[in-house]
Amino acid sequence: MNINMDQAKNLLENSAAQAESILNDPSKVDEILIQLEEKLKEVPVIGDTLSDLPLMIAMVKGYVTKQYDQVSPKVIALLLGSFIYLVKKNDLISDKIPVLGIADDLAVLGLALKLSGKELNDFSAWRKAGNGQQIVL
To answer: Where are the chain's structural domains?
Structure first.
């Protein structure tokens, strides 16, 4: 089963709507981030899409802890929505299917990365300038 960008967009939008409802609750956001870390331990190979995941997580964490506010809440909701999709068990393709099982996860995450690219670059530059060093995952 192939996941196209329209399907990935629908999945991401649904998860982003769920994320908006918990965005102001740091404990719920932390729970998602912890689940995401655990999920990543199951991934056999970290690809290009996943290589930016720690930066994505740090930006969400910085926003929720009010250490970084130079990003739209909608972008944070998209990122958190993609995290929710990754850790919840309602995938289009079961994660138990080798290789194909993470295809839908990567599609959703890749789309979130593409849609938030500028904001992630800005956050990365902010951190490289010596800010946000205390943001711990």
So the answer is: 5-128
